[in-house]
Amino acid sequence: MDETSALYTYSLLTLPHKKEVDQLTSRLLERQRKVSSLTAYKVLSVELAAGLGHSYYDNETDYETVYFDQDIQHDFASWVSGDSMEPKYPNGSVALMKQTGFDYDGAVYALMWNGKTYIKKVYREAEGLRLESINPDYEDLFAPYEDQPTIVGIVVGHFLPIEV
């Protein structure tokens, strides 16, 4: 429908219906402005376990688009699942990573180990990697080097998506 047809149809409405149209168009315009000021993030469907680990599958085309009000530089994003990294990384938040190897002890990394993905503070030890949770209710995990744990990236940010 072009603008002329829309205006003609609007002119045929009763006053109460015109008010409904006015309210609807105001809400739609507000939503449109809000979305245009947000940054879109493509979040991989692979979840990073903040807990006991999730199965990993390599399908980077399977993602969901979410929004946040800041543009944070990153290489990829994934969902945080579980409460072992709370309160800093809440369950259901989005973790943003830069694709790197191991940089330094105590940083928070996304990693793969035995077919599962994790988000943990990582410490390099003689026989493997110690994976530490922020939540004190969880014990450390130990990933021996013989299991070939792989650092996927360092976590550079996180957020809870804004609903649009």
From TrEMBL:
<keyword id="KW-0238">DNA-binding</keyword>
<protein>
    <submittedName>
        <fullName>Putative repressor protein</fullName>
    </submittedName>
</protein>
<feature type="domain" description="Peptidase S24/S26A/S26B/S26C">
    <location>
        <begin position="47"/>
        <end position="156"/>
    </location>
</feature>
<dbReference type="Pfam" id="PF00717">
    <property type="entry name" value="Peptidase_S24"/>
</dbReference>
<dbReference type="InterPro" id="IPR015927">
    <property type="entry name" value="Peptidase_S24_S26A/B/C"/>
</dbReference>
<dbReference type="InterPro" id="IPR036286">
    <property type="entry name" value="LexA/Signal_pep-like_sf"/>
</dbReference>
<dbReference type="GO" id="GO:0003677">
    <property type="term" value="F:DNA binding"/>
</dbReference>
<dbReference type="InterPro" id="IPR039418">
    <property type="entry name" value="LexA-like"/>
</dbReference>
<keyword id="KW-0805">Transcription regulation</keyword>
<keyword id="KW-0804">Transcription</keyword>
